[in-house]
Amino acid sequence: MHRLAQSFVLTALAACCGAAFAATPADGVPHGRLPRWAVPESYQLAFKVDPAQQNFSGTTTIKLALQQAADHIWLDGRDLNVGKVTITDASGKQHEGKYVTVDLKAGLARVDFGGVLQPQALTLALDYTAPLNQQLQGLYKVNHAGAPYAMTQMEPVSARFAFPGFDEPDFKTPYDIALTIPSNLVGVANTQQTSEATAGDNWKTLHFARTQPLPTYLVAFAIGPWDVVNGPTIAPDSYRSEPLPLRGIATHGEGHRMQHVLNETPSIIHTLENYYGFGYPFGKLDLLAAPDFSAGAMENPGLVTFRDWFLLLDPQSPTKNVRDSFNVTAHELAHQWTGDTVTLAWWDDLWLNEAFATWMQQKVTMKVHPEYRADLERITAAENAMENDSLVSARKIRQPISGIGDIETAFDSITYRKGAAVLGMFEGYVGEDVFQKGMRAYIQKHKFGNATADDLIGAIATAANQGPAFNQAFDSFLNQAGVPYVQTRLDQQGGKTVLHMSQSRYLPVGSTGNAAQVWGIPVCVRYGTAAGSKTQCEMLDKAEGTMVLADAGTATWVMPNANASGYYRFSMTKPAWMDLTKHVTALNDKEQLAYADSIDAGFRHGELDAGDVLAALKPLAGAKTREVAVAPLNTVAWIYRHEAATDAQRAAIVEWVKKAYLPRMEQLGYQRKTGEADGDSLLRTTLAHSLALDFKIPEVRTALLKQGDAALAKKPDGSLNLGAADPDLLGDALAVAVRERGKPAVDALIAELPRTTDPALRNGMLAGLGAANTPELANEARDFALSKQVKVGEMAAILRGGRDTPAARDALWQWFTVHYDQVLGRTGSFASGFVPRLAGGGGCSTAEADRLDAYFKPRLKDLAGADRGLAQTREQVLLCAALKSKQDPAAILR
Ligand SMILES: [Zn+2]
Questions:
Q1: How many Å is the maximal CA-CA distance in the chain?
Q2: What is the mean pLDDT of the chain?
Q3: Whole-angstrom Cα distance, residue 252 to residue 87?
């Protein structure tokens, strides 16, 4: 949608100056945002849907305020065949209107009134038909276990596939939804059903209660042979006087597997209500397990939708699914406040939805399941975002939006993870209670309306009694991309221990970026004293600063990111590194994670070589805390995959890994023990995967192959015995089996997948297929990924695989360029931003970067968001190549 960027200025002018036109606005086509002189006040949405059909029909009735004389208005509508259009004016007179599609791809239309109407209240009714979408957008269709279902996914800009309207988040209005559906099916929507009536032979019409004011992207409903199961009713509390009904919605026959998540939900809701001091306002709560879904989950008020494996749980479920289920549920329910009650005003503030839901989920998890260690999850998630944020092509948290591609690519680790880490950092700076006070005021002030970043920061600053410097510091993280790199140096000056600090932008070897950048960073350091250690904080808002360490005595070591609460990386002189490495066990586990990240950062920045890295990370491998113990694996795997050049070098790394992890792996064993801590189950999964597949440790491979063979053995009914593998290891066991047994294993999985509906078993099989790494087998798996047997939302699981070696990547590239149209045909426009990564991610040479560029550049105009996807993937490939050429593999053997 290249035209969007070009016409945005024009649109902004039309919107701002529309009122100046006396008769009717001679406006240009609003490719950016709709003008504000027609404002919707409520919608009635009536749909007639049979999921077995290819199309549906609907009538959308919008009450709107026309705020200036006009002979037309602009609407969003995509793939809609609009028939009759009726405009009823304030006097009750009806005018026949005309719906004209103006931009097919963006989904923009004009409704002509047939004459000029003066400013007044209008009612606009549009009858239309449209296809049930096949790409998981708008109102879409899925087949599951032979039965068709229809459901919605509107965010960010897909409501226009389902009904014509003002598809932008600050147009919040109430909705009355009615569904006419086959009598034998179940229909659910955002609110409680209020009536049911027959509507001719074999049809019925369901009406639902009027919603709270919502943006279009939060409208939701679903139709099919759903199981509906009751969960525990959520009792009233100080902030909500009515009991809250809770239900689970699942595909036919699966409802009984919803109880686990339903039982977890009341404590999540109460925790959120207590935090915000504001009762859940949407009347009822349904959690729906979607048989196919584009995102992970969606926070529609009253009807939250999830990929099915987050919700369908039983004692055999992978531990990771159980934990993710809680975290994702907490995230979506946090949105009921930040996102649904208070909605972003425009997509450049998507972080107001997503960073807050991510940050709040971690808070809820800390409270309800402290053993899940969400405090560590926030740190590892932030470190993951830092990798992306180190790219010159990284987004800002508040990236200006110049088109639909920018909206769709805003759902990235910067918005979610960097956003949550930045919130956590400033929460730490002002104190949790003060921050909460600000959040409560923000929710009260903007409830059922919209808000911007300034509203939020203002609320926090007021609660914290902070001046403009605070706002500037916060803004410095929102409005510029990049990770601050804080360099420290310890010094003795006149009897005082002084820490010198300087900041710049962290840029890895090979980066073309400019490092001269300044943030307002709340820097907290821990330092060793005779009596143990102390922490001290200061705001570093200039390129350089100093901190006099109180009572430092003979301080010899400094940890420059105490409690890992800061969103920054750090570096120091090599002797200081060595001092810190010596005292790494004196750090808490959060700091040990930050230490591991900074070793990785130092390696990619060129200060540390492979030998330094292997030495510095060694003390962490034996840590008791799982997250710390596995923190070195990615860096070491990079060295193994890209740097080790000789058998001796590879053998040295394998020895390092074996020494560090094999005893722990063997102690854990390869089967979940009754009653074991779920952290042990998760550690088993991580270690087994990494040791068997990344480092190819024979002992671990043998154990997994045994399980893979058992899972691939046929049961008497001819189906595979997938339950023979440990549920936490199924995917990796099948992956090893595919690598060792080749074609028979791939064929068996391809034959079995269509016969299996269980999402966890399907995920295991997809992981197996994704592991195929000879060109023939990988291509067989990829061809299969394009078939209807693989759900649209599952495709990437197979296509992500097969990129470990240059030869495997070449084969993937060949396949991808031949099947490009089919891949896009299945995923649709929503995934465009991710397509370059799917094709060329994991590359590590300039040749790979060049071919990616040459292929995608001419195609960008047809792929919204792919320009950013291309820039980031290409940059990652080039950085990998630069780091590889800088390294001396001999350092591995030092
Ligand atoms: Zn979210």
A1: 93
A2: 94
A3: 42
